[in-house]
Amino acid sequence: xxxxxxxxxxxxxxxxxxxxxxxxxxxxxxxxxxxxxxxxxxxxxxxxxxxxxxxxxxxxxxxxxxxxxxxxxxxxxxxxxxxxxxxxxxxxxxxxxxxxxxxxxxxxxxxxxxxxxxxxxxxxxxxxxxxxxxxxxxxxxxxxxxxxxxxxxxxxxxxxxxxxxxxxxxxxxxxxxxxxxxxxxxxxxxxxxxxxxxxxxxxxxxxxxxxxxxxxxxxxxxxxxxxxxxxxxxxxxxxxxxxxxxxxxxx
Length: 251
What we know:
Blueprint: H1 3-12, H2 17-29, H3 34-41, H4 45-57, E1 61-64, E2 73-75, H5 80-84, H6 89-103, E3 113-118, H7 120-133, E4 137-140, H8 145-149, H9 155-165, E5 169-173, H10 180-183, E6 188-192, E7 202-206, E8 209-214, E9 220-225, H11 227-243, E10 245-246
């Protein structure tokens, strides 16, 4: 699909013309600073910062790591579009393949890629990615924090989709902070940390991805893509799993 048609398609699902232009520039050329994006799009730098801010709030872009000055921005997975514009689901499905063919450049074997998201929009990006991967995932350090952060929408819908897809979850949580409805969800196996052990951040790992989640009013999410990193993290998870007490597993 030609770039002009993709721009039109993105406008149909809710982006403004300049948002669509900037999004596609990042998708096609990879990480860019606001100055570089201005050069490629013909916009002035201050306008680019405004557009990047709006795309950031939508969960469509994040900053790349290692961090640099000025910051460089990358696009999130095009899968985010599916969750954000459900009313135009058929139309979105028609352009996802074309967007992925431009921007889907997974890390080479042995490489690791880092992305940082800010706020609830970033968390929703990760949850959508987890569903699209469809693989078992391993949760460490919290049970209720995500549900509380997404109390106004997103998490319950995610869990319904996870259960419908039969995606299994292994959860290590603090007994005193774990919410009953989180623990007893289907396709889940739960264990509790030893008394007195507290982990201030949470994490998921699934497939070749690992997510570090720092809860708060504006949560920070770091997404690490790399099979070596995720395998190492699962080894760490399994070690903790072996010393935790069993909760009641659900079928």
